[in-house]
Amino acid sequence: MEYKWTAMTNIFIATLMGSINMMIVLIALPAIFNGIHVDPPS
User: Fold this and answer.
1) What is the pLDDT of residue 2?
2) Which of 3, 8, 14, 18 has the fewest CB atoms inside 10 Å of its own CB, making it the most exposed?
């Protein structure tokens, strides 16, 4: 039975890490575009 809690915890942590990663990328996109001299369509 403890395996189900381990699996659920791992899935929760993976989902949380993925969400945090996407937030970081969305916040950093303007700096990334400026760094590679690209003007994205507005």
Assistant:
1) 82
2) 3
